[in-house]
Amino acid sequence: MLSSHSIDGIKKEIRSIASRLKKDIVIMEVCGTHTVSVRRAGIHSLLPPNIHLIAGPGCPVCVTPTGYIDNAINLVREDRAVVVTFGDMLKVPGSEGISLSRYTGSGSVRIVYSPLEILKIRETVTKPLVFLGIGFETTIPTIAATFLRAAEEKNKDIYLYTGFKTVPVALEALLGMPNSMIDAFLLPGHVSVIIGENPYRDVLEKEGGVPGVIAGFEPDDILIALLFILRQIREGTHKVENAYKRAVRAEGNSRARDVIYRLLEPADELWRGLGIIPGSGLKLRPQFSRLDAKYVFGFKEEYNYEPSGCLCAEVLQGKLSPLKCPLFGKTCTPEEPVGPCMVSSEGACAAYYRYGDIKV
Amino acid sequence: MKYIKLEHGSGGALSRQLTEEIIYPILKNNIYTELSDAAVIEANGKIAFTTDTYVVDPVFFPGGDIGKLAVCGTCNDLSVSGSKPQYLSLGLIIEEGFPIEQLIRILNSIRSTADSAGVNIITGDTKVVPSGKGGNIYINTSGIGIKEYSEIISASRIGVNDAVIISGPIGSHGIAIMASRESINIGSKIRSDVALLYPLCRSLFDLGSRLRFLRDTTRGGLAAILNEICSGNNFGLNIRESTIPVNEDVRAVSDILGLNPIEIANEGVLTLVTDPGSAQEVLDILHRHETGKEAAVIGNVTEAYPGRVILETLVGGKRILDYPRGLLLPRIC
Fold this sequence. Notes:
The complex is a heterodimer.
Chain A (H helix, E strand, L loop, with lengths): L3 H18 L3 E7 H10 L1 H4 L4 E8 L7 H12 L4 E4 L23 E3 L5 H6 L6 E7 L4 H13 L5 E7 L2 H10 L7 E5 H7 L2 H7 L7 E4 L3 H17 L4 E3 L11 H10 E8 L3 E10 L8 H5 L14 H5 L23 H4 L4 H8 L5
Parallel strand pairs in A: 1-2, 1-7, 3-4, 3-5, 5-6, 7-8, 8-9
Antiparallel strand pairs in A: 10-11
Chain B lengths: L12 H15 L19 E8 L5 E2 L2 E2 H14 L3 E13 L4 H18 L2 E10 L7 E11 L15 E4 L5 H10 L16 H8 L5 E6 L4 H10 L5 E5 L7 H10 L12 E5 L4 H9 L8 E7 L6 E4 L5 E4 L12
Parallel strand pairs in B: 4-5, 9-12
Antiparallel strand pairs in B: 1-6, 2-3, 4-6, 7-10, 7-11, 8-10, 9-11, 12-13
């Protein structure tokens, strides 16, 4: 981390620019890990009153539609397959209020840390295996590599349920929403390791764009990125800048992208909170349709269902602070979550709840 | 005898043999002189009595083992209650098939730790559970201590501006266990901090009422203890993250495992609150001990935010430090 002297310098310049701007600036941290880091380090508490950080849709579990979760639950309930998933998905309630965690004791829901584990599970389980493929560009490459391998070995009875989301298209959708208040984006570091800088340029550097700065996840990484954003706002520019060069190369990781696009191709995708965003998802290419759980199991079309009073949709659009949701901290807590933003450790509501809201 | 059999816990000949040939010779002392049903001791004045059960996995870990932990943990609970540990009971629940050579190592560790603590094991029990129905070995120790510190240790004695002090670097025990469980080899230098805290506590008792509060910083880590200190009270705590001692390698492995040292269990760290004027004197006292040489003032008691712990982070931001949530690390002690 930077010395406290350097950090003080950054904070001073942030304050100085902010005081001259004389207007409110809304910066969205797109990635859930950034939201957690901001709240955990209390960065929001350090910012001048006219600089507002808002959480975005970058928590994979939070933007997964209710219909997707229902389809996964039904697979288990109807005993048609064993569902293999990352642990974060377990606790998100479907439209009937129950979640996959109810079935973990039955052996029909398996939690993995790496998608490759599905090949090991295959050796001991006879039922069809369905992997819940959710996440952004960060997690997709290893899942894609696993299924490219499964495709080579025939009759594995392993299927992929695609619910993948891609970030740059979603940024465009967020900016295009009516009453969008977003003045700039803090861009996700891990996603950028894969996609590099260019996909953001197409969205943010054209007319109507806003500044976007790629940031790492340490508190000082985030402070520097915020300073870069404010400098751009002062200059009146909207460029993509990389403040995480130690991990993110301008061109990204082309090998990882090759793996993704050998298996998958762009598709329209339903997001929780944001609705259908054309081209923001990834589906299996036609030659891999025999691995496609949607096709093999004939899932119902996905939909969104918001529990009564839950305002996760507005939170995911950056239109509402979790603190303003009437359920927050009352009937909705990490122990008894109502909406997905309180379930996931990367969810905005969970982060706000856990770290509180203090002004320095 | 190479492995524990179910018959070792049945009360018959093998039970007797295990006790007489293995356990008793290692643990015997002036009071535990014969295998009777109960130990008889003299007690004058106030005594402290506590119990704790140890299920740590793995049984042997860098810096200690379940036996050392079972003696230190219970002695420490007595010590932070203002008492000098005197007697321990020892309940062993052993899984069928557990190597007797390992049992002997654990018993020797119990004996040597008890000798360092000046306590005697005066009664005990052994049960065996079928293979697959237990986790190698579980240990329960109950302890009796003689009350030495006359003040009552309670958060109700804490006042605004009092100093919050920690006796040493945090997170070593939990991270040593996790690193050995996850086979993170870079963590091999991280050793559990498991240690007897009585010598530290004893040197603080002379402070009298200037010592307000004293706790062993175990499960839930520093985060849980700090919250216990202020929750439900009309004061809050201001804690400065930059002043909390954490070893560099503990911090690095915590990052890899996605854990925060502030929420990790310790087995040799005191958290205490003193009156503000005595903070330096307390640090001087603690620094004289090996286990206290990195003791530091980490914050103070405040009127603001009653019932809450406010953490000033490394970059100068402020946030609430809550009780750790969710499933904490299982079988850490």
